[in-house]
Amino acid sequence: MNPEAESRQLVQKLLPEVDEIQDATLREAVITIWASAWESSEWKILDECPKSPDLPSTRTLVTHSRTVAQISINMCEVLARQNSLSINKDEVIAIALLHDVSKLHEFTKTSAGSSKSAIGNKYQHGFLGAFWMQQAGLSVDLVHAVIAHTPLSNVIPQTQEALIVHYADFADTDSLLLDAGLPLFCKRK
Ligand SMILES: [Fe+2]
User: Fold this and answer.
1) What is the number of structural domains in the chain?
2) Which of 46, 61, 78, 157 lies in the 20 to 30 Å Cα band around 117?
3) What is the value of pTM for the model shown?
4) Ligand 1 geometric centre to CA of 1 (Å)
5) pLDDT tens, 89-122?
6) What does the DSSP assignment read for 18-74?
7) How far is the CA of 2 from the centre of ligand 1 (A)?
8) Is the pLDDT assigned to residue 1 strictly greater than 80?
9) Could you tell me the CATH number of the domain that includes residue 85?
């Protein structure tokens, strides 16, 4: 198997929620973006990249991405059912899995664990992921959702799918911050 196919296979194994995306083109794009972001990063072991340099290193980007995807899927199903809304579940899963993929380049390994990389200090969080999505030909609404997911962005979520991932990300992030005794996102000005 060539190295590219191996990377894609490992991404699919570590992020099994990707298989819940019914649209094959979208599913393949999510896998390709993750695999190429990983291959071009300094992280030799994909699930060593942290969720945040501030959190314990056991809180990984892979686990966070999976948790946000799972919360998002549940939110999508409840909101669609209870509020009679039409929400695109494929898009919700894709946004959730891609919202933080840029962290593979935004963080760097240090002797103490990890810190922000030069790119992480110079690019706004999420920009690179959105850029890769645009390059891959994903829709404006999907790219928008990744740009809007972070409170650092001046753009607020403008679709149901973007809104779901924004709050799912907050839910997991604040749960991890509370557990680590760190200030919560919901209390930041
Ligand atoms: Fe996140």
Assistant:
1) 1
2) 157
3) 0.96
4) 32
5) 999 999 999 999 999 999 999 998 899 999 999 9
6) GGG---HHHHHHHHHHHHHHHHTSS-SSGGGSBS-TTS-TTSBHHHHHHHHHHHHHH
7) 31
8) no
9) 1.10.3210
